[in-house]
């Protein structure tokens, strides 16, 4: 569904965006997130506990046809995606925590994805492409590392990179949403409403439950926002890669449907959630009188 | 050492001078030149934007640029010694360059609050009659209204990102113009600050001008600043602060913080330098020390300070209660308190004991509270390091005598309340063009502060009440008369009285008691009306409607009755 050139372009864009995200961070941010690994643990539980379960419940409740159900389960078992970092940044969440959560869930994914899928889809023999997992980590960590180094060496270079990265990120979000529709027009017309429903609601439920869970465990609002986005936003491209590797040609299309639709709608859902989170953040900000201050 | 008139000298540190009578420099121009020669290539000022974009000027650059500006003022704009130059901008790199340039040129610096409304600006301009104005572009749209009828001949416009490297400066410029639209097009004749410097440099080269010649003629008792304060009556009055006042006060303040070292400090300047506290203590004193000064254009919201704390090893900061209290409640500040901080200084308004305690818990370093007024350059007293007393404004700084006096000006016995009177080399020369008002506050060499205080046996002072009716909102004086005058112009208001009530975040808040003629008038409408005519901090936070106001038998509204009622109501809650 996405050509090689487009994939390379997207990867390059994500690289530059993550460079900018990295430039907003300091080693201390990571140290703080690691010093209190509570939030990180909550994130892993949300990611591999709640998400697959939400997917499973929806397949039961809606009685989805097997290929759609399979596609949904695979997407719901994925680790957090890189876009979760971008949305966390714009939501004024804890970006260092988000990056760490993405890394953790991706690394743990090598073991946890097959186990969870085994539990919910019983004895599925899926091929987990390690190179994709490694690529995800590289495309995440290398630019973040470079960005942090840039900021350390020169605060202005860091701030300019962060500015350009975030501007590109806005463009990227719009680009994904706008370019997706014409490319998949035919597919959109032939897809069943129940598939739409699960593709949209997986993200909505994931973000909501992640948020409620984190709040109920008294995480700081910044961290709760982070856990919510991290839980709801899955690494959909990884799901698509797994399906492409595991299933023969003609079987692929219906299994991929949820993943493809999800990638579109999660951008919209997350944008909306980000706007809500930003508003909440502004409302919670301290009011400082404008006289001496 | 302990002297009977000044028991507090016993609490001075072992190496502390008890007297500083003569200034170490004849004028601020000499000071800037001498310090710049010593620290040449070290960073003097770094402006840090909320996103971390920044620009730095070294001591040598500040010296050269302020020279160029001095030449511009004298040779291009044609100003002479004693001419007033108004400066209206938030903290940014242009501030020290312009301020030092004005003072080197022998002109008088008039600090103007950039948040002032056009009406408030007009009043200050009418009184000070500035020959030139250096203003930030964000507020230049108020100029036509503020100078109507009394034009200012030279208007120099700067911007918040002035002197930043090209790329960040460009980005900030674009964001201000197209994104938050904080900079509007300027439609009156003006010159850009950078162009003024270029013109000054050209003249200096061509005519071989020695800038030192300008300030060699400045005597210690010549006026350096007109620092405006509303005083008791509410009409703006310019306190004439001399070069000697400011230089000595800078040294008196430094004497109280001996752990601060020459050339090693990184100071955080989040308070605006147009306010006398940051002007003397941050700008002058830390320049004198050869410190790097991190300038924050706006500390609102407080997350604007995050990058500054992350990117620079802040060793000292000044603040007001509102700022310390705000930082105490910021999660990022609690997570990563500044590691290199040595101490903080508080002034401007009463520092609440629990705010100070909490800040000390977080940073592990003390907050020293001081006290002073615009008229005293401003520092009169400070808590000495290691000998802080909660709730006290500390002991008088060197060469300064404070005493509590009764209404006839006679000292009251120790331990009794009285108006604080101050004597010292930092006391102003008087109010600009206001001999009557000057005579009211300067009596036999004593400056009457209008604050009621009490001195303990050791010579520590505590403020109990204010004699004046003025309300202090986050360190800024609000004069009830001015707010009442504004309310009086509203057609739906019959009369009003304004008092200050305690407020947990701003120290005091403005409360208006209003008698309406239009019964449908709401609190929101009144506040909106005031907002059009007054700076935000003067706008009443609380409005209470009354059928009548308490009055004396000659018809004067009794604010004190309203105040005591408000107090007892609050105590009952």
Automatic annotation (TrEMBL), chain A:
It comes from the Bacteria. It is a multi-pass membrane protein. Gene3D superfamilies: 1.20.1530.20. The chain crosses the membrane at residues 6-26, 38-62, 68-90, 97-121, 133-151, 163-182, 194-214, 226-249, 255-277. Keywords: Membrane, Transmembrane, Transmembrane helix. It is found in: Membrane. This is Bile acid:Na+ symporter, BASS family.
TrEMBL record, chain B:
The keyword Membrane applies. CDD domains: FC-FACS_FadD_like (cd05936). Its EC number is 6.2.1.3. Residues 41-432 form the AMP-dependent synthetase/ligase domain. It comes from the Bacteria. Residues 482-556 form the AMP-binding enzyme C-terminal domain. PROSITE patterns: AMP_BINDING. Pfam families: AMP-binding, AMP-binding_C. Pathway: Lipid metabolism; fatty acid beta-oxidation. It is a peripheral membrane protein. This is Long-chain-fatty-acid--CoA ligase. It comes from Roseibium denhamense. The lineage of its organism: Bacteria, Pseudomonadati, Pseudomonadota, Alphaproteobacteria, Hyphomicrobiales.
């Amino acid at each position: 569904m996405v050509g090689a050139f487009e994939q390379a372009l997207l990867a390059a864009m994500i690289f530059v965006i993550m460079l900018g995200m990295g430039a907003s961070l300091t080693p201390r941010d990571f140290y703080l997130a690691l010093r209190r690994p509570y939030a990180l643990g909550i994130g892993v539980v949300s990611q591999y506990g709640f998400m697959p379960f939400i997917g499973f419940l929806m397949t039961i409740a809606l009685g989805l046809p097997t290929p759609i159900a399979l596609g949904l389960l695979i997407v719901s078992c994925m680790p957090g995606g890189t876009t979760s970092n971008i949305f966390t940044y714009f939501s004024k969440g804890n970006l260092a925590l988000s990056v760490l959560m993405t890394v953790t869930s991706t690394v743990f994914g090598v073991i946890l994805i097959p186990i969870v899928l085994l539990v919910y889809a019983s004895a599925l023999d899926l091929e987990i492409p390690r190179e994709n997992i490694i690529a995800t980590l590289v495309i995440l960590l290398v630019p973040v590392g470079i960005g942090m180094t840039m900021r350390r060496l020169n605060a202005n270079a860091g701030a300019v990179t962060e500015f350009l990265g975030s501007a590109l990120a806005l463009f990227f979000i719009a680009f994904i949403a706008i370019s997706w529709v014409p490319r998949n027009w035919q597919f959109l017309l032939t897809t069943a409403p129940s598939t739409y429903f699960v593709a949209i609601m997986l993200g909505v439920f994931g973000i909501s439950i992640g948020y409620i869970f984190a709040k109920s465990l008294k995480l700081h609002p910044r961290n709760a926002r982070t856990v919510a986005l991290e839980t709801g936003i899955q690494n959909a491209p990884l799901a698509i890669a797994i399906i492409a590797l595991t299933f023969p040609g003609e079987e692929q299309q219906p299994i991929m449907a949820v993943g493809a639709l999800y990638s579109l709608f999660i951008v919209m859902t997350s944008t909306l959630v980000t706007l809500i989170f930003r508003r909440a953040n502004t409302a919670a900000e301290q009011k400082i009188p404008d006289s001496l201050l | 050492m302990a002297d009977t008139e000044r028991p507090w000298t016993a609490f001075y540190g072992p190496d502390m001078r008890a007297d500083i009578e003569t200034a170490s420099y004849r004028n601020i121009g000499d000071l800037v030149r001498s310090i710049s020669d010593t620290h040449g290539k070290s960073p003097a000022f770094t402006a840090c934007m909320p996103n971390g974009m920044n620009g730095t000027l070294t001591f040598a650059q500040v010296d050269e640029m302020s020279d160029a500006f001095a030449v511009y003022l004298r040779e291009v704009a044609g100003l002479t010694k004693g001419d007033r130059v108004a400066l209206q901008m938030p903290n940014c790199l242009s501030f020290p360059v312009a301020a030092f340039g004005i003072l080197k040129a022998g002109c008088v610096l008039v600090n103007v609050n950039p948040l002032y409304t056009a009406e408030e600006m007009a009043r200050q301009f009418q009184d000070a009659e500035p020959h030139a104005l250096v203003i930030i572009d964000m507020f230049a749209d108020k100029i036509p209204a503020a100078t109507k009828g009394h034009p200012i001949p030279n208007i120099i416009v700067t911007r918040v990102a002035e002197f930043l490297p090209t790329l960040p400066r460009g980005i900030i410029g674009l964001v201000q113009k197209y994104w938050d639209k904080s900079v509007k097009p300027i439609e009156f004749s003006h010159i850009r600050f950078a162009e003024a410097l270029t013109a000054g440099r050209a003249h200096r080269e061509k005519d071989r001008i020695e800038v030192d010649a300008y300030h060699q003629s400045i005597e210690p008792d010549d006026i350096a600043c007109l620092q405006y304060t509303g005083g008791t009556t509410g009409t703006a009055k310019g306190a004439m602060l001399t070069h000697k006042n400011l230089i000595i006060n800078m040294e008196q303040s430094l004497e109280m913080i001996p752990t601060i070292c020459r050339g090693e400090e990184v100071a955080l300047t989040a308070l605006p330098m147009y306010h006398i506290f940051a002007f003397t203590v941050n700008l002058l004193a830390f320049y004198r020390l050869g410190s790097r000064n991190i300038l924050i254009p706006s500390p609102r919201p407080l997350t604007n300070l995050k990058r500054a704390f992350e990117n620079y090893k802040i060793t000292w900061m000044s603040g007001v209660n509102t700022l310390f209290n705000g930082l105490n409640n910021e999660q990022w500040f609690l997570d990563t308190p500044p590691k290199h901080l040595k101490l903080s200084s508080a002034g401007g308004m009463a520092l609440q004991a629990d705010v100070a305690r909490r800040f000390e818990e977080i940073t592990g370093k003390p907050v020293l509270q001081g006290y002073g007024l615009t008229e005293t350059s401003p520092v009169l007293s400070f808590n000495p390091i290691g000998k802080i007393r909660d709730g006290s404004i500390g002991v008088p700084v060197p060469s300064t005598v404070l005493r509590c006096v009764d209404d006839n000006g006679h000292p009251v016995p120790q331990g009794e309340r009285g108006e604080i009177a101050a004597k010292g080399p930092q006391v102003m020369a008087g109010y600009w063009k206001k001999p009557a008002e000057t005579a009211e506050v300067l009596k036999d060499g004593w400056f009457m502060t209008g604050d009621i205080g009490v001195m303990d046996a050791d010579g520590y002072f505590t403020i109990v009440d204010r004699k004046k009716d003025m309300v202090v909102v986050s360190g800024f004086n609000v004069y009830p008369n001015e707010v009442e005058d504004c309310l009086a112009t509203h057609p739906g208001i019959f009369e009003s009285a304004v008092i200050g009530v305690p407020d947990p975040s701003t120290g005091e808040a403005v409360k208006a008691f209003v008698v309406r003629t239009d019964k449908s008038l709401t609190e929101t409408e009144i506040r909106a009306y005031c907002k059009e005519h007054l700076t935000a901090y003067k706008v009443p936070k609380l409005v209470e409607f009354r059928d009548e106001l308490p009055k004396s038998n000659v018809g004067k509204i009794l604010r004190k009755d309203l105040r005591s009622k408000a107090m007892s109501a609050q105590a009952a809650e």
